[in-house]
Amino acid sequence: MTHALATARAALSWAVLTASLLAFSLVDAPVARAAVTTYTASTSVNVRSGPSTSKTILTQLQAGDSVIAAGAVSGDWLPIKYNNTTAYAWAEYLDPNTNPAAVTITGPTGRKTATKNVNVRQSASLTAEIGTILTKGTEIKVTGLTSGDFTQVNVGGKTSWIHSKFLSTATDTTPETVARYTTTAKLALRTTASVAATNQGTIATGSTLGTTGTHTGSYSQVVYAGKVGWVITGYLKAVAGTADNLVLPLSKGARYALTEGVVIRAGAASDATKVTTVAQSTALRITGTTKDGFTEVIWNGGTDWVATADLATSPPTVDLGSDSLNKLEPYGKAAVLEVRAKFPAIKTIYGWRSSSAYSSDHPNGRAIDNMIPSYKTNKALGDALAQYFIDNGKRLHVTYVIWRQRNYTLTRGYWVKMADRGSDTQNHYDHVHVSFEPS
């Protein structure tokens, strides 16, 4: 009898313990995972739906981003894990990691849904402190990053981690909008925050659209007619009831940087904090307010100041001698002028072109190719030019340099050998390629 009672009590205790564990839906013993191979991007590189430059671009990695390999490099392409399928990236822009990267990009940013009640942890571990518990069905913001079995999320404005098995497979990638606005002029819906970017369509005056709250330079990210894109900030009038902190400044006109390196400052004073510099001819929208010799301009979704004497009412004429160079964004144009002044031996420079097999920098007007005369015996000139752009990279807004089958990104800080593309031109033996930040 005593033995039977003890057995019954043990069975009851086990049932209670099991039920309590199931109630939280998260107490799982860590499972052994096969070793993964990761690669880190040495510069910006497109992720495509298939191993071809004609395939759809799913996302773009930036220098320092890491991905999980889904197989070995084949030809010029590395298969990677992305959004629960296999995607492809140009292999020469990805460096294999000796030790697997702790955090990798495996999907797009967006929202997933909790499939069970789920613990939100402060780090990617089952032993990490629990910040909160979300109920089944909760929509959760995801960053696209994972670490082992965990997905990085944003809950309550804080970055946290949730075990991936308790999140929906599909990711809702439609950006959330934070406020609605009416357009005060016709606006081009650009694919990126650049005047050289592809126009997805013209938005008519008086149209209503939503913004995501993200701003870059003179542009704001918006959602319109199911499309996500970028428009010039100064032409968005907040609808009635919009919170004061989401009301955007309105444009009263445009001014243009008169010279190279015009400084945008946080205040209307020559000693005010420098926000950034812009290249000659960069268009800046003004609010109509002036103070102590400074003009208020619209920048990054707010307002800053530029010395009035540094602004022109019309774009300064900068004819670089060819359609290819005249279609460059301002940072590229400024670089061309500097190369001509500092390296007069370089007579041929190419810039914009309609397409590129490797990146979007040339079609977006953000790259130049400096052709080295007699390059087989004139390596020193190319070395000097490449080093000049590295040494002056921050001032000239350089992102990366390619020379003699190597690339150098400003964020990484050293040269990396590239795969053999074929000819001397394809391998950059006869020219120094330089890419720039968006103007």
Please describe what this structure looks like.
The chain folds into 5 domains: 38-105, SH3 Domains (SH3 type barrels), CATH 2.30.30.40; 110-166, SH3 type barrels (Roll), CATH 2.30.30.40; 179-246, SH3 type barrels (Roll); 254-312, Roll (SH3 type barrels); 323-436, no CATH class. Helix content is 13%, strand content 38%. The chain is built from 5 helices and 34 strands. It has a 6-stranded antiparallel beta sheet with strand order 29-30-34-31-32-33. It is globular. The model is unreliable at 1-32 (pLDDT under 50).
Brief summary:
It is built from five helices and 34 strands.
Terminal Cα span: 85 Å
The biggest beta sheet is recorded as: 6 strands, antiparallel
User: Taking Cα atoms only, what radius of gyration do you get, to the nearest Å?
Assistant: 26 Å
Q: Beta-strand level of the residues, as a percent range?
A: 35-45%
Q: What is the SS-derived class?
A: mainly beta
Strand arrangement across the biggest beta sheet? 29-30-34-31-32-33
Keywords:
mainly beta, SH3 type barrels, 439 residues, 5 domains, six-stranded antiparallel beta sheet
